[in-house]
């Protein structure tokens, strides 16, 4: 693990299938803005979600191999889910004595941290459990599933049946749930009634705020929707309260992070700084820093003070959506096989690879030749050495082929640039995946492509060239949902 010591903030970073990494980062003299952008190396995928220990001693990892990992500086313990299905989420209890995990087997398991033994399991969901949150008083557990329902459980005495069920939590599925650390009895635990504020997010593009009430020591729990926060244009993947409970942050597949006032239920600001889907967000313990993680493989750290400073300092990062650059030569939206050399050269400029224009011109690469190019041709004949540049050319060629219209109908249109959606493409075929699956190397491939690879007798990873431990393929349901949405938007 590589660490650069710059200040007193420690982040536990998990990429799509990356092992957790602790990154020491810094706060610069900037008043309010993004102060650091981290791009850690990504080892083979395994980790989905982490839930940090409140005391800061023991990180927890949820993996796609049916195991939860309890780690300290010297010891790592794997706690296996009984069904060995993928674990989608794990969280520590507020007192750090227990850890709970939700799985694709529709159950929740609770382990005792001291003994690292499974002590309880909860059943009741009909689909994968993907969201968990302990109440601030340590007595209750809320869970959400891909079915869209919310369950409330007794976290202390182990009543097997749920205490409350909200069937219509979120259409299409719940993605995250978090309790406010200061609302109601979270601030005054001496009151006779447990009274909390719960935030949930879902695939319906919404954040919902719920009032949680229960007499202390009673199983009579009520969860009532208090407010709905619209604003995101795609699935809300995560939400997090700052330590004072005055700001709620949310991240979404629409590539934005939004800040809300959870008490008044109003939006504060939108951060538009990531190139791809925002997968997670978290506040520092002092509430002055916000970290946002994305599938663009970066973690951005934002310095926050009060709302007025947030509005002022982050304004420069709310960039409008850019149109595809127009080309000065013949319109490249006619049939690709009819493109001239000038059309091809102008097309290269639309996605920022102007440096290869002369080589394409010298080799007289017109539309028909472009259609026949392979990655090897690009490297050996046209001198496109970087693999990323070769993939970008081939990827944009496929996009342009899908978007061809008759020249007579060619007006101002926007071509979707898959350079910001590389995660949708199979690493083998470089085409949009129809049935994404996770192989033993942790990478996601289209099922037909990786099966053909294995059936040809190859036993090494197409990405890392290391020997594959097994041939099992696990469906990547989340990515399949993202691909389906992307294709719907292209229609």
What order do the helices and strands come in, and which of them pair?
Elements: E1 9-13, E2 21-25, E3 34-38, E4 47-50, E5 60-63, E6 67-71, E7 76-80, E8 87-92, E9 98-103, E10 107-112, E11 117-123, E12 129-134, E13 140-145, E14 150-154, E15 164-166, E16 174-179, E17 193-202, E18 207-215, E19 222-229, E20 236-241, E21 248-252, E22 257-261, E23 266-271, E24 278-283, E25 289-294, E26 299-303, H1 307-313, H2 341-349, H3 357-362, H4 367-372, H5 375-380, H6 387-402, E27 436-438, E28 444-446, H7 447-455, E29 474-475, H8 477-490
Antiparallel strand pairs: 1-2, 3-26, 4-5, 5-6, 6-7, 8-9, 9-10, 10-11, 12-13, 13-14, 14-15, 16-17, 17-18, 18-19, 20-21, 21-22, 22-23, 24-25, 25-26, 27-28, 27-29
């Amino acid at each position: 693990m590589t660490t650069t010591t710059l200040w007193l903030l420690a982040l536990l970073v998990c990429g799509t299938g990356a092992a957790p990494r602790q990154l020491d980062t810094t706060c610069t003299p900037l008043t309010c803005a993004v102060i650091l952008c981290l791009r850690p190396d990504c080892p083979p995928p395994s980790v989905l979600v982490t839930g940090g220990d409140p005391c800061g001693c023991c990180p927890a990892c949820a993996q796609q191999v049916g195991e939860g990992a309890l780690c300290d500086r010297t010891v790592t313990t794997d706690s296996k889910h009984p069904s060995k299905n993928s674990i989608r989420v794990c969280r520590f209890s507020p007192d750090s004595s227990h850890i709970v995990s939700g799985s694709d087997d529709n159950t929740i398991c609770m382990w005792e941290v001291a003994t690292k033994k499974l002590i309880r399991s909860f059943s009741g969901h009909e689909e994968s459990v993907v969201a968990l949150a302990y109440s601030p008083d340590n007595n209750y557990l809320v869970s959400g599933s891909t079915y869209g329902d919310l369950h409330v459980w007794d976290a202390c005495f182990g009543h097997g049946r749920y205490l409350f069920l909200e069937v219509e939590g979120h259409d299409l599925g719940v993605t995250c749930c978090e309790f406010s650390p200061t609302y109601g009895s979270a601030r005054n635990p001496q009151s006779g009634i447990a009274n909390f504020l719960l935030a949930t997010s879902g695939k319906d593009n919404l954040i919902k705020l719920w009032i949680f009430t229960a007499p202390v020591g009673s199983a009579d729990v009520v969860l009532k929707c208090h407010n709905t926060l619209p604003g995101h244009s795609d699935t809300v993947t995560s939400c997090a309260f700052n330590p004072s409970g005055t700001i709620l942050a949310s991240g979404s597949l629409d590539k934005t992070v939004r800040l809300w006032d959870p008490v008044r239920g109003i939006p504060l600001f939108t951060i538009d700084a990531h190139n791809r889907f925002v997968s997670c967000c978290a506040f520092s313990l002092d509430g002055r820093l916000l970290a946002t993680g994305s599938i663009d493989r970066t973690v951005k750290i934002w310095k926050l003070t009060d709302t007025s400073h947030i509005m002022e300092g982050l304004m420069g990062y709310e960039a409008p959506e850019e149109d595809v650059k127009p080309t000065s030569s013949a319109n490249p939206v006619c049939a690709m096989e009819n493109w001239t050399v000038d059309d091809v050269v102008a097309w290269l400029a639309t996605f920022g690879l102007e440096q290869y224009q002369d080589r394409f011109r010298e080799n007289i690469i017109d539309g028909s030749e472009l259609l026949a190019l392979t990655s090897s041709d690009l490297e050996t004949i046209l001198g496109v050495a970087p693999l990323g540049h070769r993939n970008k050319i081939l990827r944009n060629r496929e996009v342009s082929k899908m978007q061809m219209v008759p020249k007579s109908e060619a007006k101002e249109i926007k071509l979707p640039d898959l350079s910001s959606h590389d995660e949708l493409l199979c690493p083998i075929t470089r085409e949009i995946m129809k049935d994404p699956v996770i192989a033993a190397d942790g990478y996601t491939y289209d099922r037909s492509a990786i099966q053909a690879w294995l059936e040809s007798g190859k036993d090494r990873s197409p990405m890392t060239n290391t020997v594959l431990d097994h041939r099992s393929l696990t469906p990547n349901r989340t990515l399949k949902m993202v691909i389906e949405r992307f294709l719907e938007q292209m229609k």
